Amino acid sequence: MTSASFYDRKTVPGWKHALIDRPLPAELRREVSAALTSRLKQPELNDVLLVLTELVTNSYCHTDTPIDAEVTITDVGVLVEVSDGNTADLRLRRQPTPLRHGRGLALVSAIAEDWGVESIQDGKRVWALLPRAA
Questions:
Q1: Mean per-residue pLDDT over the chain, rounded
Q2: What InterPro entries does the entry give (predicted)?
Q3: Fewest CB atoms within 10 Å of the CB: 32, 66, 91, 98?
Q4: Are 81 and 117 in contact (CB under 8 A)?
Q5: Left (φ > 0), alpha (ψ -120 to 50) or beta: where does 42 sit?
Q6: Domain containing 111: what range?
Q7: For the chain, what is the domain count?
């Protein structure tokens, strides 16, 4: 896996938000969709919304620290990043789980061209690079 900082960011505005009030996933999807609908094709936007929701929900479930989320249109795709104050290691489960939860990173891995976890000051950043539609 590569670092998210490897990908050059274009000057195309994306979306960034400190999730202080922990909006519901549906509210988050509406806000991001409104901000990016004119810049991304619908299939791209749907993938961005799914990945963002999975990463944010993961942070909601595993930390009570502040959470920041960002979507950036880059030179090679759409970069989705979620940062929180949880320093615990994050791993993709290799075996199917009978639980209702625990499959989010498998979805992210299936949709993204690349994804990873970076240590940051006081926490971690989980990122996923999604391909741009042709």
A1: 84
A2: Anti-sigma-factor_SerPK, HATPase_C_sf, HATPase_dom
A3: 98
A4: no
A5: alpha
A6: 4-131
A7: 1
